[in-house]
Amino acid sequence: MQFENTLEFARQLDWQDSLKEFRERFIIPTLNGKEQIYFLGNSLGLQSKNVKQEIEKILDQWGSYGVEAFFNGDAPWMNYHDQLTQVLSRIVGALPSELTVMNQLTVNLHLMMVSFYKPKGRANKILCEAKAFPSDQYMFETHLRKYDLNPDEIIIEVEPRKREHLIRNEDILDAIHKYKDELALVMFSGVNYYTGQVFDIARITKAAHHAGMIAGFDLAHAAGNIPLRLHDWDVDFACWCSYKYLNSGPGAVGGCYVHDRFHRDENIKRFAGWWGYNRATRFNMEKGFRPIPTAEGWQLSTPSLLLYASHKAALAIFEEAGWQNLQTKRKLLNDYLWFILDEVNKMTSQKTIEFITPRPASYQRENERGCQVSMLMLERGKHVFEALNKEGVMADWREPNVIRIAPVPLYNTFEEVWEFGNIIATILNQ
Ligand SMILES: *Cc1c(COP(=O)(O)O)cnc(C)c1O
Fold it and tell me: Which one of 141, 277, 318, 366 is at 20 to 30 Å from 23 when CA atoms are compared?
């Protein structure tokens, strides 16, 4: 499509957008009575208007039935979980039985490490990306210390080459090969939080398996953003949070995937709790842990119904919009964003924005890119960021000089993308 840098053109794209009415389902933050341009769906997705109602339902059930709400009424809490995993299975490409919704991301990563980090003699190393999200780094560090291992010796980080921002896929695959006798686990994110780089989950997993190790992924910035086929890609385990692209609210309940080949593995180690115990006999309260033979066998505690409720409401909107439709709009919106950003660079006397995120064209496969663009500001970065805020643009600042923006298909518009370009160009030309 031939894009144009005009308000009329952007409005026409919105008019043609089959998902345009979904914005109405969300509460858009305002500044001085005007809706803000919210490009922070990668940080905390906006609240959909059905969340309150879904939470109120739980409160009403609690009020009406007390603890019996687990079993009584038209939607007993005991089965609530299944509604979530059905929808999620389409979003992350897994069997519903491979999914569980529990805890939060960092906790789940620790739990997965218990099961899937199995050091054997010299093969005790973990391969991961350099500059992973800090919580993941702290998770590795403290987890390894628990086993009296030195994180500096165990963790091998793949870095971008000199003067590059991104980690080359070939370098990841080469590292897996190079260290194959020393590695126990390969763990990457699906989309790097800082650069927006999408990793090739399928190829990393294949290479890891070929070398006889486990492949796990942190999908915090991937779930609800890019298409995933965890089961087909043969991924061993994955975890994500639901408050970013999945719009399920601050501190929303996390998601966890375990490939079904592990569900009945009696040798697998885990930290257990009563909610992972076989459903049929759980309430016999017997000694000796017998896991549910699905990903639910990794659950520990009583479900967080209030968090389930907001997750359910948010997922219902994904379901209604249609995952394929969202993919189509994500790509078009992202293409338009790149076009507008290039226009901005042309409108300033010298180039002021360098892009860290790979350009769409640099991806070989159609789908491999997300919503986010990370812009390295070559001058006055902090000033530009603050000026954007004053103009009602909500973006994200990362030291030393990076502004991250992530227009999402459910509630952002082409007009917002155009307006963003207009605002930032004005700021840069001042
Ligand atoms: C957002 C994010 C987290 C945050 O973890 P919580 O336990 O949900 O606070 C962890 N890892 C990555 C890669 C993230 O992007």
Answer: 366
